[in-house]
Amino acid sequence: MINPTKTTVPVDSSSSRETSSTFKRRFMMRLVAVFIGGMFLDGYILGIIGPVTGSMRSDLQLDALSLGMIAAGPLAGIFIGSPLAGWATDKFGRKPMFLVDMGLFLVASGAQFFVTSGDGAVIQLAIIRFMMGVAIGGEYSIGGPLLSEFSPPKLRGRLLGLTLIAWYVGFMMAFIIGTLLHDAGTPWRLVLGTSTILAFVLFLARMGLPESPSWLITKGRHKEALEIAHRYIESPQMHDSITGEMDLRMLQEAQAAESGTKIKNASFGMLFSRQYWRATVFTAGFWFCAVTPYFAIATFADEVLNQFGFGGGWAGGVGLSALAVAGVVTSVLLIDKLGRRILTVPGQWLCAGILLVIGVWGNAPAILVLVLFLAFSYFNAGYTTMTQVYPAEVFPGHLRGVGMGFAASFSRIGAALGTFALPWAIANIGMGATMVVAAAVALLGAVLSQWLAPETKGRTLAEISADFSH
Questions:
Q1: Which region holds residue 192: left if phi is over 0, alpha if psi is between -120 and 50, else beta?
Q2: What does UniProt give as GO cellular component (predicted)?
């Protein structure tokens, strides 16, 4: 346990001025808004392409492979961008990377307006949307650590969980806006480029944000960390967390000096070291197991439900999505009251059981199958909310970006695997066996979380990293 009272680094009042509680609360609202805006953009760019698919196919003479390349570009970009941005934010700082990342998105999004109609259009769009995905991947590994490092422990889970709601809202708003604009005769380039407007606003809003005190501490810049905390942070518990992180850092520096070594910079190899492998295995594995079944079932909802005799747009498209949003909202409301584990572990066991029943009970009544799928969507989304919370909490400050970036990237393997493997599995091993495999993935996640998921409710980041990283 970290004892924050030991820190002796003083606050230099001459270089840090008093600020009001109103100023500090407005800063937190601004920080939350700009990060949530980035997650909104993630859902938006994935959802906006749906309404204009027909126009793009006709105008550019796209075949199925070309359309798939364009649609999958952001997912591939997230896979690459998350770990790279995580490494960069741990090395160069949260503040510059948060702005650079949105600048990259802004440039790439604006480039959609200028896509030509010739033979190179497919390559242009695929590259552009890949770069947008790289930027969105950066949002996970930059914005998540930054928000967690400024959030009061009593609100941290709720604020991080809000990002998943923003993703769903972004996806749905993209469908609505895209459909309205397309029906009004708006060219598909302009429809895709609508993300540029919000990106420009977010880019301006991120200018002037301070550096994270936690990151400054990892670089030995304790005086700057205290000054920023004094100006921007209101929560006394957060001040305790920051001094606790300084205690831990100074202890590490003293141990390194005594042994004649240097403290290592963040690297992917450190994620699997004796100290940090538990955090890495848990966050990456849990995230993978949470999203793999959902992406498969939600993407092909109508086809899956038709196999069981109950299809239709409402049940497949709207029903599953609505229950997923309800599950996320429930978790966000309860996370800082009930804690993380109770919203993580039981739901996974329940979802594994639901999928197993669907897979084994081949002649179940269609209405029961529908109810089970809706229940799965609700409870799965509830614990998937924790994928936005745990990675930003359990890694120490000097690995928080790399750790969250790796977990996000690894989860995209699961998302892609679930999306692309489901049609093959249905055709080759049958729907029942496919659901049993999905149940096994959910079961693996349940076992992993039962074993490794910590309770982090109300605890400072210094306390969590001290207890979980050993």
A1: alpha
A2: plasma membrane
- For residue 318, the 8-state DSSP code is I
Q: What is the DSSP letter of 386?
A: G
Task: Write the single-letter amino acid at 363.
Answer: N
Right CATH number for 21-215 from 1.20.1250.20, 3.40.50.620, 3.30.70.3270, 3.40.50.11740? 1.20.1250.20
Report which of 397, 433, 390, 437 is spatially closest to residue 411, judged by C-alpha positions: 390
Alpha helices by DSSP H, 219-319: 222-232, 236-259, 277-299, 301-307, 313
Q: Which of 380, 367, 212, 230 is nearest to 291 (CA)?
A: 380
13 CB burial (10 A radius; 0-12, 13-18, 19+): exposed
Give 207's DSSP letter.
T
- Helix ranges restricted to H, 48-120: 53-60, 64-92, 94-111
Tell how far CA 253 is from the center of its chain: 32
Note the pLDDT tens digit of each residue in 290-306. 988 887 776 555 556 66
pLDDT digits (tens, 9 = 90+) for 20-42: 888 888 999 999 999 999 989 98
Residue type, 45: I
Cβ-Cβ contacts under 8 Å for 428 (sequence gap 6 or more): none
